[in-house]
Amino acid sequence: MKFGILVNEGPFTHQASDTAYHFCKAAIEKGHEVSRVFFYFDGVNNANKLSEPQSDDRNIVKLWSELATEKGVDLVVCVAAGMRRGIKEENIAEGFHISGLGQLVEAGMGCDRLVMFGD
Amino acid sequence: MADTELEIEGVMKTFTFMNRKAPYGTIYALEVLETVLITAAFEQHANIVFVDDGVYQIKKGHDTGAINMKNFSPTFGIVEMEKEDADEDEDMDMVWRIIVEKESMEARGLTKDDFKLDVEILTSAELADVLDASDCIISG
Residue B65 domain-assigned? Predict the structure, then answer.
């Protein structure tokens, strides 16, 4: 099955992005395809490469980056939501890219399921 | 990394937007609205639903002067315009519905006349059928 993922909350404050990450990882391990992860609302903060959690905690930004570089998952940060929150080309982590909301609509149209993580 | 190409040619799905939050206080209402407007460009079916405190998003007479926030209430006029286009354009196979959940409306002492948009009032049970028939649900 082809999954599109929508992440609506920022890292650490909220568990949504952790859960979304684990969902993606499990889906890929089961042989499904995660066609796109779209970061919206405060979810855009998952792309901030300046994020530096304590060394004994998980590094969410890095985990997402690895999903892109190792599994080829398309990580898209909403440009409008990102600009409001200071997430721009100069501070996005490896594997993420910035694009428009149309990419979210396309994920809904082109995937078998769009799964949203957030409140 | 370049954009991944998804096959969307000729795809027609039903998107349901669940507006559950008050218009101000959090950004959810505004950013869901931005998504609704983009969906119009893709000519997909859409249900724009207002439940819980989300019903306040389309209440008449917003005045945000005292909280120094942008009053985005007028933008809902574009949603209504898109719905009218969808209703009237025979070349476009697009259905848009603007829905308020009856229980949420009544619990807040509101009536249909309090809304700035012409809405359908559905019960929670009827709304469940709308959700069941949706392909993609985006909420905020």
Answer: no
Please give the structure tokens belonging to residue A60: 């969410």
For chain A, the domains span 2-48+58-117
pLDDT at B93 over 70: yes
A118: which chain B residues are within 8 Å (Cβ-Cβ)?
A: 139-140
Q: What is the pLDDT of residues A2-51, one digit of tens each?
A: 999 999 999 999 999 999 999 999 999 999 999 999 999 999 999 999 99
3-class SS of residue A91:
helix
Nearest to B8 among A75, A95, A109 (CB): A109
Nearest CA-CA distance, residue A93 and chain B, Å: 11
| Amino acid letter for position A74 | D
Please, are residues A44 and B31 in contact by the beta-carbon 8 Å criterion? no
Q: Do A74 and B41 touch (CB under 8 A)?
A: no
Domain count, chain B: 1
User: Was domain A2-48+58-117 assigned CATH 3.20.20.480?
Assistant: no
Q: Residue A108: which of B15, B31, B34 has the nearest Cβ?
A: B15
The model scores a pTM over 0.90: yes
What domain range includes position B116?
14-60+71-139
Give the SS3 label for residue B115.
strand
- The conformation of residue A112, written as its DSSP 8-state character, comes to S
Question: Considering only CB atoms, which chain B residues are within 8 Å of A40?
Answer: 31, 35
Residue A95 has pLDDT above 90, yes or no: yes
Q: Is residue B3 part of a domain?
A: no
In a domain, B32, yes or no: yes
Cβ atoms < 10 Å from Cβ of A35? 21
